From TrEMBL:
Record-annotated Peptidase M14 domain positions: 134-383
One protein family per Pfam: Peptidase_M14
Annotated protein name in UniProt: Zinc carboxypeptidase
Cofactor(s) needed for function: Zn(2+)
Molecular-function GO terms, alphabetical: metallocarboxypeptidase activity; zinc ion binding
Key words of the record: Carboxypeptidase, Hydrolase, Protease, Signal
Signal peptide: 1-19
Superkingdom in the source lineage: Bacteria
Native species: Thalassotalea euphylliae
UniProt keyword Membrane, yes or no: no
Matches recorded under PROSITE patterns: PEPTIDASE_M14, PROKAR_LIPOPROTEIN
Biological processes per GO annotation: proteolysis
Length: 383
């Protein structure tokens, strides 16, 4: 019996594409979101000392310090090993999580000593996954869009292609009589998974069956581009697209196909007489914060975002909804582009890397509901 198990294991080893291996241990990166070969170096498996070391590299430089990592580990026999990650020209940002199915994840203890992050892991013949955040893959977005498009009023369509030819999808409500649009964007920055964790419940609430949502959609269409950077997501990039460009610095240059696709979409809406009313762009950073345009920037309905986020804040006695207004005309960020081109508010919705996952979910639902209430109220005032 043992012999059969061993030979099955050897077959598995032979069939897998591995990043590095010793006699009895493999580190693999042959799955979506994994750290790709070009983004790692000095991978050493020291069986004697039960230690695996890997150095993480960015896709190009200069770059925001967001060293992403995702690997699988397999060992012929169950054992405890120490995985040591180092970062080229950077510091560790993402706390390690472990999974045994790629679906459910648990934070694990780790230590950072000098520039080394050490994680003790129990590995064995079954795959152990380790990553900087839970994995949300390109396919997850496609599955979600397909599910939503089963509703009569929702379409799931390709609006363009990434640098490497991957489809950029929109999820869009198709109500021709409704002329105002709420725009939702996500995943310009691949490792910003907590932003994605907020986008899903936020959008599900907007597209849901509550009385508020149904009434809201009588007055507003919604277009969502949930996964702006599928190349970066696929290849485990820290920040950029496959041209090595930060997409959220390209909204004044319009050189990148991902940005061009969304600009074209919104430009066409306006060209046919519709109106962009508001936009929300989901990200992650070291804390929960909402980057806004200043009230006095000169956009229409100057207090829309203020009113929205104050209302949200009032629902959370123990949580501070931080609003950080900013005006950076030369930076090429999405919210500024929306304000300048469409003369309306937009925000960058940032969830902390380590924010409690169930809190992210609850806050996003409440944020969607309070946004709908605020936009409806503002709409009444206009008429
Ligand atoms: Zn970001």
């Amino acid at each position: 019996m043992k012999r059969i198990v061993t030979s099955a294991l050897l077959t598995l080893f032979a069939a897998s594409s591995f990043a590095c291996q010793s006699n009895k241990i493999q580190l693999l990166n042959d799955f979506p979101n994994a750290t790709s070969d070009a983004l790692m170096t000095n991978c050493v498996i020291d069986e004697q000392n039960k230690r695996i070391t890997v150095k993480l590299l960015p896709e190009n430089k200069p770059i925001n310090n967001s060293p992403w990592y995702a690997f699988q580990l397999i060992s012929e026999k169950p054992q405890e090993i120490t995985l040591t990650l180092t970062v080229e020209d950077g510091t560790h940002r993402y706390h390690p999580k472990v999974s045994h199915d790629g679906e459910s994840w648990q934070a694990v203890d780790y230590q950072v000593v000098d520039d080394k992050m050490n994680v003790k892991l129990n590995i064995g013949p079954k795959t152990t996954w380790i990553a900087g955040q839970e994995l949300i893959t390109n396919q997850d977005y496609v599955d979600w869009g397909n599910e939503l498009s089963q509703f009569e009023f929702i379409d799931h369509k390709v609006i363009g292609k990434s640098v490497k030819g991957k489809p950029i999808y929109q999820i869009i409500t198709n109500q021709p009589a409704v002329k105002q649009w709420l725009v939702v964007l996500g995943r310009q920055h691949p490792p910003e998974v907590t932003g994605a964790m907020a986008l899903f419940p936020f959008v599900d609430t907007l597209l849901g069956n509550s009385e508020l949502a149904r009434y809201f959609r009588q007055q507003y269409n919604i277009v969502i581009v949930p996964n702006m950077n599928p190349d970066g997501v696929e290849l485990g990039f820290w920040r950029h697209n496959a041209n090595g460009v930060d997409l959220n610095r390209d909204w004044n240059k319009f050189k990148q196909p991902e940005v061009i696709a969304v600009d074209k979409l919104l430009t066409e809406l306006v060209a046919r007489g519709d109106k962009v009313a508001m936009a929300v762009d989901f990200h992650s950073t070291h804390k929960d914060i909402f980057y806004t345009m200043p009230n006095d920037y000169g956009v229409q309905q100057p207090y829309l975002v203020n009113n929205w986020l104050n209302k949200l804040d009032s629902q959370y006695p123990d949580f501070n909804v931080i609003q950080k207004p900013g005006n950076n005309p030369q930076m090429g960020v999405f919210k500024q582009y929306v304000a300048d081109k469409f003369d309306v508010h937009a925000i960058t919705y940032e969830m902390g890397d380590n924010t409690d996952r169930s809190f992210i979910d609850k806050l996003a639902k409440d944020a969607a509901n309070t946004l709908m209430q605020t936009m409806l109220k503002n709409n009444e005032k206009l008429h």
